[in-house]
Amino acid sequence: MATATTARSTLREGSLGTLAGTGKLLRFQARRTRVYLTGWFAGMIGGTLAIAAAFPDMYATPDERAQFATTVDTPAMRSMTGPAEYIDAYAQSGAAMFAHQMILWSTLVVAVMYILLITRLTRADEETSRLEVIRSQPVGRRADLAAAMLLASISAVALGLLIGLSTLVMEDADFTGAMLYGLLHTAVAVTFAAITAVTAQIAGYSSTSNALAFGALAFGVLMSMVGNAQENAAVWLSPFGWAQETLAFTPEQNWVPIVVAAVVSAVLIWLAFALVARRDFGQGLMAARPGPATARAGLRSIGSLSFRLSRGLLWAGIITMVLLGAAYGSIVGGADDMFETLSETQRQIFEQEGASITEGFVVTISLISAFTATIFGLLVIGRARKEETGGRGELLAAAPVPRSGWPGSYLPIALVTATVASVVGTVSLALTGVGSMGEWSYFDEMLIGGLVHLPAIWIMVALAFACLGWLPRAGWLRWLPWAYVFIAGYFGPILEFPDAMLSVSPYEHVPSYPVEDLDWLPLVVLTVIAAAITAIGYMGVRRRNLQFS
After folding, report:
1. CA-to-CA distance for 179 and 160, rounded, in angstroms?
2. pTM across the whole model
3. Total domains present in the chain
4. 524 near 511, Cβ under 8 Å?
5. Is residue 285 included in any domain, yes or no?
6. Would you say residue 449 has pLDDT above 60?
7. Domain containing residue 420
8. 8, part of any domain
9. What is the pLDDT of residue 374?
10. Could you give phi then psi for residue 277, rounded to 5 degrees?
11. 387 and 517 fall within a common domain
């Protein structure tokens, strides 16, 4: 009887095949991620369209573009933009200038989008046992991975085409260049989707899979920067370098990097499919280390446990802010020369009334650093929601723990994470900035100019925690205030936002030190507001039902 059952099971699996049910899973995953994809699509396409529409006005004439080209043709600037071939085409094409300034940063966003998408549909579903329910149905072993990669590939092609079409609002953008610009985003998206498909087989947890994929992303960014700064072959070790080497909108447009990306992606996808059959369900190829029999004294509280679970975000924030501060600080010394080549529209971003060009530049860069540091605090709040819905929080909540202990312990962790990231980024900016200027007397001013943003950062993190307390299912809501203050702070002068719209942002009430005198009253008021929002958030956490799944 047992032999007959085994034979029927084997026959059933063989007749279905390892890809059986892929089509149904593809439709199911598309429905699950429709909001996620729509949000990313809207942001990427809308951002590209807005910047492409405004770009011609920034540098209206070939002479203005040629003048700006002399400023960006330095190792530091090339590391953040791309190959010198774009710079040579500035005078002939504003579209080439647009591509040069945009490719690294826009493809970086696309890479993040597809890393998170693939992890969500593969390792995260397996970790939370959702995939176990799916596997109980007549589907093949590789069907879920196949559906995830098909969804990623189809959406990446659609995203690339729409991004390419968005660039046609520029008068000197030709259709071929626009399609190349769009498809280079597709190439980066599929490449990082394939990389994440492999890391999802290696790692046993979604956080580890993301960490490995983001490590590959960081390596790619580093190789791109090094290769472009030193003009060597290191750029070909990076998917971002491949995208830049397409030379979109220049006379030397190159389709070879798209082919390279396709070949590498195909190899990685094949590897991911091969690894699926060589590991146990629910486990990764990289075996988890056995933990100690008893926890250390520092892990015997809810707060310390929550911090340990979130420490990866703290390290990610530290590394990101160090690199960001060093990148911006390295060009502070050349701010005066760069400012002379900027268009009137771009000067509005950096101009500060009664300030030198360098001081205005430092104030703007400090604001951007504060926006970036805030992201890591918001991610920690999101981790609290993930622990709740993933069922792990249920074990903690079953113990005699107050709501302020869990999930309330994630708020101080988020505040610490954002604060440390901001401080580290400010120190990195100040050190590299004074080094590029050769004037160490500016160190204190640059340091204080970055730290004054901390109360505004605390307000944003407290708002995210209040959303967790009162509207836990609307996880996307915590990102809306951040998106608004970023647009208002960075693009507000260009878009001519009225003062009433700008004053909503807490960052607008931070003293623009060293341009302005250091006024402690706004900082105290912002801190009090952050404390009040925190109290509201804790009220929501105590009143609502925890949602376990």
Report:
1. 8
2. 0.79
3. 2
4. no
5. no
6. yes
7. 302-543
8. no
9. 93
10. -80, -5
11. yes
